[in-house]
């Protein structure tokens, strides 16, 4: 029995490492979702289109011979433009936030096909950010284990994005974004252009999401036009899990909770699949179940507290 326990623990180590890698690279996408859904209070469905947009742009440029870092930066710009389109449809065309996101997401499917010229673009034998960083590490630190290259890069990169986002949200523009989501009527009376704040928030959000898509494409070794399906649900799951476990007292804790929530989400899925409690085809169902549990857990917790207090007071009386 003890031997089986050691085998199980030994198997969990690579699973933890893989979940941490995926959690951090998808955590950048979750930070983008956090901006729209938590900061702006904007139901943006552009995510399912801007995520593969970043992957398509980066993969197409890399295959064409461009530097992977340049290709990833262009992917961020492409996602920002997609966010701007959603913002303009909502603020200028007066289309609801939900519908404007759907319209942009739908149009991006055809745009992504145009960019790649086909549904799938493989990156086999292509130079990527990860191969360049791995070569760099091997030159300056030959004894460094190559299997830890990904996790080291993802930790540094995700924390850098988190720190930059924290700093931005504490600027005057960041305060305007937060106030627009909390009380748009009040901040509008103070002379703040809430329409511009929405557009800026959507630009930044979808830029992060496309950036994550570019990194995921290079991580997986391919870009696919359908890789964005369900991205919004995974992003929401990360945000909700982080908010439920760590709260949202400060920006620092909230964004850190999003990254940790992304890791916990990926690890829970990997755990279920590894123990064969579900099949790979059930991944979307598992995602929906995780989101439902995360959404309803605080309500059940509050109900339990109220019931416990009521029972205690009844007993004392």
Short note summarizing the structure:
The chain has 317 residues and is mostly helical. The protein has twelve helices and two strands; from the N terminus they run ααααβαααααβααα.
List the helices and strands and how they pair.
Layout: H1 2-39, H2 47-63, H3 68-91, H4 97-116, E1 120-122, H5 129-140, H6 149-169, H7 172-182, H8 184-189, H9 194-220, E2 222-224, H10 231-246, H11 251-274, H12 283-316
Antiparallel strand pairs: 1-2
Helix pairs in contact: 1-6, 1-9, 1-10, 1-11, 2-3, 2-4, 2-9, 3-4, 3-9, 6-11, 7-9, 10-11, 10-12
Considering the chains and any ligands shown, give keywords for the structure.
12 helices, disordered N terminus, 317 residues, 2 strands, two-stranded antiparallel ribbon, mainly alpha
Sketch the topology as an H/E string, one letter per element. Answer: HHHHEHHHHHEHHH
| Main sheet: strand order | 1-2
Helix content: over 70%
Structural class: mainly alpha
How would you sum up this structure, described in words?
The chain has twelve helices and two strands; from the N terminus they run ααααβαααααβααα. By secondary structure, the chain is an all-alpha fold. The chain has a domain at 18-228. It has a two-stranded antiparallel sheet. α10 runs parallel beside α12 (283-316). The N and C termini lie far apart (51 Å).
């Amino acid at each position: 029995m003890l031997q089986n326990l050691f085998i199980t623990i030994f198997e969990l180590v690579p699973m933890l490492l893989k979940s941490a890698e995926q959690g951090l690279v998808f955590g950048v996408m979750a930070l983008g979702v956090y901006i729209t859904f938590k900061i702006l209070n904007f139901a943006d469905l552009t995510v399912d289109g801007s995520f593969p947009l970043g992957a398509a742009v980066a993969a197409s440029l890399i295959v064409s011979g461009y530097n992977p870092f340049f290709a990833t930066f262009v992917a961020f710009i492409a996602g920002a433009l997609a966010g701007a389109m959603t913002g303009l449809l909502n603020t200028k065309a007066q289309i609801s936030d939900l519908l404007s996101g759907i319209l942009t997401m739908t149009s991006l499917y055809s745009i992504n096909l145009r960019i790649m010229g086909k549904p799938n673009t493989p990156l086999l034998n292509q130079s990527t950010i990860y191969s360049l960083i791995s070569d760099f590490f091997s030159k300056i630190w030959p004894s460094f284990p190559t299997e830890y290259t990904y996790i080291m890069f993802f930790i540094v990169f995700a924390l850098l994005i988190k720190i930059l986002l924290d700093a931005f949200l504490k600027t005057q523009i960041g305060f305007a974004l937060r106030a627009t989501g909390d009380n748009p009527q009040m901040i509008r009376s103070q002379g703040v252009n809430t329409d511009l704040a929405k557009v800026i928030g959507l630009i930044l959000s979808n830029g992060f999401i496309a950036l994550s898509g570019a990194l995921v494409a290079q991580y997986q070794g391919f870009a696919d036009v359908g890789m964005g399906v369900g991205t919004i649900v995974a992003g929401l799951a990360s945000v909700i899990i982080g908010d439920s476990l760590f709260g949202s007292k400060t920006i620092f804790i909230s964004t850190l909770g999003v990254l940790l929530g992304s890791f916990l989400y990926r690890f829970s899925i990997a755990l279920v699949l590894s123990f064969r409690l579900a099949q790979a085809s059930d991944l979307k169902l598992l995602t929906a179940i995780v989101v439902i549990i995360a959404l309803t857990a605080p309500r059940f917790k509050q109900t339990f507290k109220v019931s416990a207090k009521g029972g205690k007071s009844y007993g004392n009386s």
